Amino acid sequence: MDGGGNRQAKAALREEALRRRGGLSPEARIEGSLAVADRIAELSFEPGAVVSGFWPIRDEIDPRPAMHNLRQHGHRLCLPAIVEGKLVFRRLDPETRLVKAGFGTVEPGPEADVLSPAVMLVPLAAFDRVGHRLGYGKGYYDQAIGALRSTAKPLCIGVAFSVQEVPAVPFEDHDQPLSLIVTEREIIHCREFV
């Protein structure tokens, strides 16, 4: 499929998955977010690993309960920040000053240290079972994951509601696959540490 065809197919899948996600009740979103936190707690990471989370926007799953649990177990947290058109991951702790950012989210201020995550909780619009994801179309995470993978092997975990699953996401060379996907229903093992 050519680039234009891929873009159209991706846009249609994104719209379908986001419509289903938007149809979830507030209660289902809260319960799903708490269930995802429990599932992420089942995973084992290196002690003290740096974990990047994200601040939820609109009706996204909320990873903050999982992030709180990870901090309680000694992991260092960071959040993405857009700097000069690219994602960097800045330290997040109770003293971190959060500032308004694009897309209706917040990010740590520029005084927060930049960290290199070993584990990434990745937001998405849609996913399939082999680890392909659709983001929101800007490519920030694909670029950031690609850059990290050039020097390290971060464990990339898609975090979503099960209604965001689609049969197959069109995959292009610049797209970065996920190792795991965690939903309120299950942990999907997509591939070994890519």
* Mean pLDDT over the residues: 92
CATH H-level superfamily = NagB/RpiA/CoA transferase-like
Overall domain count? 1
Instruction: For the largest sheet, list the strands in their spatial order.
Output: 6-3-2-1-7-10-11-12
Helix count equals 4
| Total strands | 12
Q: Bin the strand percentage.
A: 15-25%
Structural class: alpha/beta
CATH class: Alpha Beta
Fill in the CATH topology.
Answer: Rossmann fold
Assembly context of the chains: single chain
Helix and strand run: HHEHEEEEEEEEHEEE
Query: Which CATH-level-2 architecture?
Result: 3-Layer(aba) Sandwich
Biggest beta-sheet profile: 8 strands, mixed
What is the overall silhouette?
A: globular
Task: Give the low-confidence spans.
Answer: none
Helix content: 25-40%
Tell me the radius of gyration.
Answer: 16 Å
Describe the structure in your own words:
- By secondary structure, this protein is of the alpha/beta class.
- The protein has a single domain (3-127, 145-189), classed as Rossmann fold, CATH 3.40.50.10420.
- 29% of the residues lie in helices and 23% in strands.
- It contains 4 helices and 12 strands; from the N terminus they run ααβαββββββββαβββ.
- It has helices spanning 3-22, 26-42, 64-72, 140-149, and strands at residues 50-52, 76-83, 86-92, 98-100, 106-108, 114-115, 119-122, 126-127, 133-134, 155-159, 180-182, 187-189.
- An 8-stranded mixed β-sheet has the order 6-3-2-1-7-10-11-12, with helices on both faces. A two-stranded antiparallel sheet has the order 4-5.
- Helix 2 (26-42) runs parallel beside helix 3.
- The longest helix is centred in the N-terminal third of the chain and has 20 residues, at 3-22.
- The two termini are 25 Å apart.
- The mean pLDDT is 92.
- GO terms for molecular function: 5-formyltetrahydrofolate cyclo-ligase activity; ATP binding; metal ion binding.
- Its EC number is 6.3.3.2.
- ATP binds at residues 10-14, 133-141.
- Belongs to the 5-formyltetrahydrofolate cyclo-ligase family.
- This is 5-formyltetrahydrofolate cyclo-ligase.
